[in-house]
Design goal:
Oligomer: heterodimer
Number of helices of chain B: 11
Largest sheet of chain A: 2 strands, antiparallel
CATH class of chain B: Mainly Alpha
Radius of gyration of chain B: 23 Å
Radius of gyration of chain A: 23 Å
Shape of chain B: globular
Number of strands of chain A: 2
Distance between the termini of chain B: 37 Å
Largest interface: A-B, 84 and 88 residues
CATH topology of chain B: MetI-like fold
Number of helices of chain A: 13
Structural class of chain B: mainly alpha
Strand content of chain A: under 5%
CATH topology of chain A: MetI-like fold
């Protein structure tokens, strides 16, 4: 009897926690959404004066479209470069044992943990000398610093779960290196590459301070624009920009349920 | 190709980026913080900038404030992460949606969290208006100051929204694997639920908590965007003070801004080294 009573208590506790969790996670998006459809939304109203002003502005104004374009361009390029550089690095870390591996592993993940203010402020003088400051090239370079650790860490787990014997079997059966890579390796690691790339894209997409310092006046990415509107008090346009700003993350969340539902079970065979 | 050298060759491009951009950036920051200014002919270095900031009240207050924000956010994140992970660890109907919700904030840009807090918790924000409708708060000023306030409540809440799932998902993964196994063993040996939690589950959760909370603390300590959006006029976090000084038209403040950034960096690196030492001791 006592153990059934305990189970019911646990169930109720869990239900309460779940309600709180759902509320806490999703309620933040409600005012953002409502603000984006507002003309004016003054205290104490819970419903605003409805207007599509913000959305019209966002879809027609040149400055917003160009900063959206900048963000997409920069983040895509950064992701592509990180992938090209990170894939071999992850292979080295995921499939080889070598002296100094632990040190390199730490070094590679460090930029993801250490606040990068010192890096941006320090490298700025060099970038100015090289003409990289106040340009999209400098921004791409500085974004590589926080993005690469995430790319490498994500890809490392892909390689750790990867079984090289499939490749060996293919070679034994007569396939050349290119065919093996194309038909065996890529399909095996492609899902991991996609997820790692999406994550890396979002890391670059979310950057504010680094872009502000290195990019100067010329490079205005979406977060910079968002801050500008919020600081000037226009929460309607700020809300609309915020919704657009959140889209890549939503695509990742709803587009790759396999990755998120079974976080650790993606590792082949390991439970 | 020499098999021994192959991993190093594969790592080379990544290492170049990290060495030249990351380490190089920090190095140049250190050099500038040491007052090295060859442009005006000064080729000596000194610790003047550091002496200056460590005797300055604004900096010291910001140092404590940043530590407080980081600690508050990390502590609350750990506690709530454990509570929720514990509630989600067993199988139940609707679990996959619950877990999806749990980790939902992880890829969401932190700025979004800040915007949400801004719209929810200011004195004329959404929550305040609900309180007004319910008759609890008569006017905006009756609602407590949670944003732009000296206690940084809004900042901590925004950090909590973003990082609690980060810690929680890691903890949940452990609870669902080794946690359940040892928990069952402990139950069959007669342990009650508190004993199971304290002596079996908590130690199992520890590595996940340690690694994720270091990251949370480091982010909170050096945070710029969220404190900028949600913080008040005073005190300001270290990153904000450093950046303001960096942007000062008077370039003599540059070395000080560099010194402040280096202080942030050294603090976080020390934290990481401390964690590494503790991790190897425990295993």
């Amino acid at each position: 009897m006592a153990c059934i009573k305990k189970k019911n208590q646990n169930n109720i506790t869990r239900k309460i926690i779940l309600v709180l969790l759902y509320t806490w996670t999703f309620v933040p998006f409600i005012p953002i959404l409502i603000w984006s459809f507002s003309l004016r939304w003054n205290y104490p109203n819970l419903i605003p004066e409805f207007s599509l002003r913000a959305w019209k502005y966002v879809f027609t104004q040149k400055n917003i479209i160009s900063s959206l374009f900048s963000s997409i361009l920069i983040s895509s390029v950064v992701t592509a470069i990180s992938l090209a550089i990170g894939l071999p690095a992850a292979k080295a870390l995921g499939m080889y044992k070598f002296k100094g591996k632990k040190l390199i592993s730490t070094l590679v993940t460090l930029p993801a943990i250490v606040p990068l203010l010192a890096v941006a402020m320090g490298i700025q003088v060099v970038f100015i000398k090289l003409g990289l400051s106040d340009s999209i090239y400098g921004v791409v370079l500085i974004h590589l610093v926080p993005v690469m650790p995430y790319m490498i860490m994500n890809l490392s787990s892909v390689y750790e779960a990867y079984n090289p014997e499939f490749e060996q079997q293919a070679r034994v059966l007569g396939a050349n290196a290119f065919t093996t890579f194309y038909k065996i390796t890529i399909p095996a690691i492609l899902p991991g590459i996609i997820v790692a790339s999406m994550f890396s894209f979002i890391v670059s997409w979310s950057q504010y301070l680094l872009t502000l310092i290195i990019g100067g006046a010329s490079t205005k990415t979406l977060p910079l624009l968002l801050f500008a509107f919020l600081n000037s008090g226009d929460y309607a346009i700020g809300g609309a920009i915020c919704i657009i700003f959140v889209l890549p993350a939503l695509i990742l969340l709803f587009g790759s349920p396999k990755y998120f539902a079974g976080t650790k079970s993606v590792r082949g065979g390991e439970v | 190709m020499d098999e021994k050298n192959k991993p190093w060759l594969l790592l080379l491009p990544a290492l170049l980026v990290i060495v030249f951009l990351f380490l190089g950036g920090i190095l140049f920051c250190i050099v500038q913080s040491l007052n090295y200014q060859p442009i005006i002919g000064k080729t000596t270095i000194d610790l003047e900038a550091y002496r200056s900031i460590f005797t300055e009240r604004t900096f010291l207050v910001s140092l404590v404030y940043s530590f407080y924000i980081a600690f508050g956010a990390t502590f609350l994140s750990i506690v709530t992460a454990i509570i929720i992970a514990m509630a989600l660890r067993k199988t139940f109907i609707g679990k996959s949606i619950a877990v999806f919700t749990f980790q939902f904030p992880i890829p969401i840009p932190h700025i979004v969290s800040g915007v949400a807090i801004l719209m929810l918790f200011t004195q004329s924000g959404f929550i305040s208006r609900i309180f007004n409708m319910m008759g609890i708060a008569e006017s905006p000023s009756s609602f407590p100051e949670l944003v732009f306030d000296p206690m940084g409540v809004g900042i901590i809440l925004a950090l909590l929204w973003k990082f609690m799932p980060f810690i929680g998902v890691s903890v949940l993964a452990l609870l669902q694997t080794s946690g359940l196994v040892y928990e069952e063993q402990a139950t069959s040996l007669g342990a009650n639920s508190w004993q199971r939690f304290r002596y079996v589950l908590l130690p199992i959760m520890k590595p996940a908590i340690m690694s994720t909370s270091i990251l949370t603390f480091a982010y909170g300590f050096g945070a710029y965007e969220l404190p900028f959006l949600l913080g008040g006029v005073y005190p300001k976090t270290l990153a904000i003070v450093a950046f303001e000084r960096y942007n000062n038209v008077d370039l003599t403040y540059r070395p000080e801004s560099m010194a402040m950034s280096i202080v942030i960096t050294i603090f976080v690196v020390s934290l990481i080294l401390l964690y590494r030492k503790m991790a190897t001791q425990n295993s």
